[in-house]
Design a protein that fits this description.
356 residues; alpha+beta; Endonuclease III, domain 1; Nucleoside Triphosphate Pyrophosphohydrolase; three-stranded antiparallel sheet
Length: 356
Amino acid sequence: MLTQILKNFNSFDFQHDLLDWYYENKRDLPWRQSQDPYKVWVSEIMLQQTKVDTVIPYFYRFLEKFPTLYDLAEAEEQEVLKVWEGLGYYSRARNLQAAVKEVVESYDAKVPDTKEELGKLKGVGPYTRGAILSIAYNQPEPAVDGNVMRVFSRVLKLEDDISQAKTKKKMESIIREIISEKDPSSFNQAIMDLGATICTPKSPACLLCPVQEYCRAFADGVEEKLPIKKKTKKQKVIPYIVLQIKNKAGSYIIEKRPDSGLLANLWQFPMIHMKEVGLDGVVDYMRKEYGISIRVKDKQGSLNHVFSHLKWDLDIFEAETDVTELKDERLKLVSKEEIEEFPFPVSHQKMINFLE
């Protein structure tokens, strides 16, 4: 199958033109200042599902706080989540720290340079593994993400559904045949840059493309029809009531989320499922669930927060309580100033603006 796909495809000239373009035009990104495998690893985890411009300040802050694997391994999880706050997909941070701890304990703080060892680390999938091996260790390993699949779907005019796992494996096999043995680090980063700046999802800049002459989709005028990707399921919408509960001393009640699942171990203002309880049942729910009495006051505002698979509709209400001590371990009383010390998801960070 690969022989047929790559028939009449000049891999050597493709590499040459791609790399020439990259050497002249590569993006100046902070994680490209060195081939330190730890920095490469951190950047690749941050870049999953997140735009480069968003990642850059987080990358600087993270490396300033945790400059070595030892620093990250020894940090408190809440400290790591606070630095990650606002970047989203928080399981990435937890998995990264767990894997770094294993590297410190089992590999003498040296990031493994083999597929087998890297692949065993928590949160290191085929893409991250390939990125570390190629970029940091200059090994000819494919690093296939959405950008890369888009580029090669067009260059080779592949009509496979890129949302399917088998397509990704097929793409990895193809790139193993095409990747530069001499400079695999630059090759993989060149494809990433090409997908980010020229071979974009919509309106690709084909006339500026350094490998246009090799692109079968461009030759046939179908570049905007590729890649093929099945439509995702409609997002589930969940309505919540959020309570900003203040006592007479001016402290607010915040709640720690469960230690697994969505937004694990982050903090939030208490949230109640609207459909299960309803606004009229909030007071009774708080008494039964947490053992505290509250008085619900005015609505402060509304927010929507969109995840990849669901959407929260959040109605925020002010509330009062006479409670000065909490028995439920999930809850904590903090001043408005102390709230800033806790890692909150983006939606609840925005709610801090509603506080008096």
